[in-house]
Specification:
- The chain is of the alpha/beta class and 291 residues long.
- The chain has two domains: 82 residues, no CATH class; 169 residues, no CATH class.
- It is built from four helices and 19 strands.
- Strands 5, 8, 9, 10, 13, 16 and 17 form a seven-stranded parallel sheet that branches. Strands 1-2-3-4 form a four-stranded antiparallel sheet, covered by helices on one side.
Length: 291
């Protein structure tokens, strides 16, 4: 009988310990899991901090406007100087309207004309994701792309941020006579978003358009950009050959539209650019401007 009681007592103790462990794991999950209390609190804090940062940025922009600074570079510097009082590592990239501002460890896209603020920036890690950008420009239709468990909306006007160097050789190569499909090749489907290269390099690009150019087309990593597109901090290397009709060619961008306010900054071309078509422009960073 004593053995039975001891056996029952031991079993009861083991069960109690198991139950306590289960309860403890449930409690930890409730605190630290994906939807846990601590996780939600951290998210709420991050959103509050972002909202506060946005207000500080808008205030700095208004302060810069009060100084009657008309020159874009001076205007950017005025914004930067104001924000550096709070965060010395501030940087400002922009064209006349769009400001890409790195402030307090986050990137904010500000439209100074409308006051719209974007913080939904799409990280790019692979050549396949670059192909998706080209596809949505070509089709004009948005696509939902899952990156590391998060769904992002790819479009011709989205904001993309390159996270590492990318080799394009699996999608284009001279040996296979397979060309890179330039992002936004035509005026009708050109790129109008923001692409932050973050000083990374796109390697082994290869394009040979083989006499199949179309009026208004540009070839390069980006074919054509328009509106308030911003391309910053990108290096491209490889080989680009222009044999096509009515085609400007550039390493970073083939052409910008005449009526656009697009900007290209801090970019470098290491690609070999060969222009075999007279009467059309070629350049390392930008081929030319088209209607």
């Amino acid at each position: 009988m004593i053995k039975n009681k001891n056996g029952i007592t031991l079993i009861a103790l083991v069960i109690t310990i198991i139950v306590l462990l289960i309860l403890a794991s449930v409690s930890i999950a409730m605190l630290t899991g994906e939807n846990g209390i601590l996780t939600q609190a951290q998210r709420a804090k991050e959103e509050t901090d972002k909202a506060s940062n946005i207000e500080e940025i808008k205030l700095a922009i208004e302060q810069a406007k009060m100084e009657d600074t008309l020159d874009t570079i001076d205007f950017n510097n005025a914004i930067k100087e104001e924000l550096e009082k709070q965060y010395p590592e501030t940087s400002v990239i922009s064209n006349n309207i769009i400001k890409v501002i790195y402030y307090k460890d986050n990137t904010y896209i500000i439209n100074t004309g409308t006051g719209e603020v974007k913080t939904d920036i799409i990280p790019i890690y692979t050549a396949e994701q670059l192909v998706k950008i080209a596809e949505v420009c070509e089709s004009g239709a948005e696509q939902i792309v899952n990156i590391n468990g998060v769904d992002y909306t790819f479009s011709s006007s989205s904001v993309y941020s390159l996270q590492n160097d990318i080799d394009l050789s699996s999608f284009c190569s001279e040996g296979d006579n397979k060309s890179w499909n330039s992002i936004g090749r035509l005026a009708t489907n050109s790129f109008s978003g923001i692409f932050l290269g973050n000083s990374h390099e796109i390697t082994n690009i290869y394009i040979n358009n083989m006499e199949n150019g179309t009026a208004g087309e540009g070839i390069g990593f980006f074919g054509a950009i328009k509106d308030y597109a911003v391309i910053d901090g990108l290096t491209v290397s490889g080989k680009i050959i222009n044999n096509g009709a009515n085609t400007d060619v550039g390493g970073i961008v083939g052409s910008t539209l005449f009526y656009s306010n697009a900007s290209i900054s801090n970019c470098y071309n290491r690609a070999n650019i060969i222009n075999n078509k007279s009467g059309y422009s070629a350049g390392g960073i930008l081929g030319g401007r088209s209607i």
